[in-house]
Amino acid sequence: NVGETNQTAYLRPLIIGHRGAAGEAPENTMASFLLAVEQGCDMIELDVHLTADGKLAVIHDETLDRTTDRKGIIRGKTYAEISEADAGSWFAERFRGERVPLLEEVYEAVPQHVQINVEVKNGYGGAIEPVMDAFLGDGDRLQRTVVSSFDHKLLARMNRSRTDLKIGLLYAGRLIDHAGYAGIMGCPVYSLHPHFHSIDAEDVARAKDAGIAIYPWTANHEADLQSLIDLGVAGIITDFPVRLKRMLEQS
Ligand code: G3P
Ligand code: CA
After folding, report:
1. Does the ipTM exceed 0.90?
2. CB 215 within 8 A of CB 208
3. pLDDT tens-digit profile of 123-140?
């Protein structure tokens, strides 16, 4: 049961860099991931979409429009076409030249001790093979990965095909019983990824009792970060990992 690996008491929440360090660098680019690593993240969160030629492109939206200088739907383009887009200059001129990375490249660039939370976006398309292929045959990669999605049926299918794949349930609602919901998935759940507004002390206690990590998203303001630290969550997803790290060091 992969959930059992996460039951141990922790001294502080994991610092989880949202789309890298998206508050300070263009989201989901190598510059953002390497900044998050430099700032001391324990884990980085990123988003993947499938390209027309079956590759996993690291980008949040279904299209290139918002975060690059090109337009068009990711699944309608080959990765060669997508890689021509500039994914940095929209954020700041000094990031010109950043590309939409492949998931494969992120695994190679991010040091082994940093975990990776791969969010498979809605509209991904259903075929689990490309995602599974990214992990199969590489025990180290599997070990450092949590796959999350708002599509819980997709996660259950992935875990059934590879039972040691750690899955994280991503959702926004204020559930009656967060850990109880994980219990009806029919497969082990490693982590809960609720919106940070939607949990309280009882939810955190129940998740701990169930041996499930709780990684709320996406808290950026100091007051919100402090509330989550005080709640004792297992990890905090933030656009400003450096801010969270400083707060943890000062507490
Ligand atoms: O994984 C947490 C968070 O990233 C989910 O929402 O839209 O930022 O991908 P979004
Ligand atoms: Ca995400």
Report:
1. yes
2. no
3. 666 678 888 888 777 778
pLDDT per residue as tens digits for the range 144-177: 999 999 999 999 999 998 999 999 999 999 999 9
Q: What is the residue with the minimal CA distance to atom 7 of ligand 1?
A: 60
Residue 160 lies in a domain: yes
Is 226 inside a domain boundary? yes
Ligand 1: which residue has its CA nearest to atom 2? 217
* Encoded amino acid at 165, one letter: L
Q: How far is the C-alpha of 60 from the C-alpha of 57, rounded, in Å?
A: 9
| CA 116 / ligand 2 centre spacing (Å) | 12
The model carries a pTM of 0.95
Atom 10 in ligand 1: residue holding the nearest Cα: 60
Residue 45 Cα to ligand 1 midpoint, Å, equals 8
Task: Looking at the CA of residue 19, tell me the nearest atom of ligand 1.
Answer: 4
Q: Which residues are catalytic?
A: 18, 60
User: What string of DSSP letters covers 201-227?
Assistant: HHHHHHHHHHT-EE--B---SHHHHHH
User: Which contiguous run of DSSP H or E holds residue 116?
Assistant: strand 115-120
Report pLDDT digits (tens) over 168-208: 999 999 999 999 999 999 999 999 999 999 999 999 999 99
Q: Which domain holds residue 175?
A: 2-61+102-250
Calculate how far, in angstroms, residue 32's C-alpha sits from the geometric centre of ligand 2: 14
Number of domain units in the chain: 1
